[in-house]
Amino acid sequence: MIKSELIQKLVDENPHLFQKDVENIIAAFLDEISDALASGNRVELRGFGAFSIKNRPARIGRNPRTGEKVPVGEKFVPQFKAGKDIRDRLNR
Questions:
Q1: Which residues contact 58 (CB under 8 A, 6 or more apart)?
Q2: pTM greater than the 0.70 cutoff
Q3: Contact (CB, 8 A) for 51 and 80
Q4: CATH topology of domain 42-92
Q5: Mean pLDDT for the stretch of residues 54-70
């Protein structure tokens, strides 16, 4: 499901809400998660899962075209761990 499909589903299930309001709510929700992760915080949604950041240290990589060794800098990447409720629903 993509963001526009999620918005449309919420609008269909809640006819008293305008589509623009639902778009603003979803955008604010995703922005808050992004801002928290950018600040180094963990975001936990009970029953759904937890978003956190993971550090990937600097390393020596390889250019696949030439085989030449190249330095790859340190990175921080988002990580998601599904909650128990979601894992249970997937493994019924």
A1: 71, 72, 73, 74
A2: yes
A3: yes
A4: HU Protein; Chain A (4.10.520)
A5: 96
